[in-house]
Amino acid sequence: MATDFDKRKILSALCHGAIFFSASVVSVGIPIAILLVSDDQVVKDNAKESLNFHFNVWLYGIIVAFLCLLLIGWLLVPILFLFNLILPILAIVKVLDDPYQVYHYPFIFRLLK
């Protein structure tokens, strides 16, 4: 039986790791489901932060796609890719290291508080 500590670590890491399924609806569905069913405030806050990151990745992707159509955005594609890869990995490492702390992504707009 998992303790609340282990449950918090797993659910928080799952929220942040969901971005790796970004080609599917499952990506945003995981943190939404966790937000709705969890009663742990730290897990809920990590789910909200993950959702905020999803919204930002989608927004930045739209902007970069538009700039690519104008032939000036091709240099931004690798930056967006690294942003989408490195920050969630860092978030997972941080929440596994200190499950009592909510991870806050840098460089994003927060729609959910």
From TrEMBL:
<feature type="transmembrane region" description="Helical">
    <location>
        <begin position="12"/>
        <end position="37"/>
    </location>
</feature>
<keyword id="KW-0812">Transmembrane</keyword>
<keyword id="KW-0472">Membrane</keyword>
<dbReference type="InterPro" id="IPR019109">
    <property type="entry name" value="MamF_MmsF"/>
</dbReference>
<protein>
    <submittedName>
        <fullName>DUF4870 domain-containing protein</fullName>
    </submittedName>
</protein>
<feature type="transmembrane region" description="Helical">
    <location>
        <begin position="57"/>
        <end position="87"/>
    </location>
</feature>
<keyword id="KW-1133">Transmembrane helix</keyword>
<dbReference type="Pfam" id="PF09685">
    <property type="entry name" value="MamF_MmsF"/>
</dbReference>
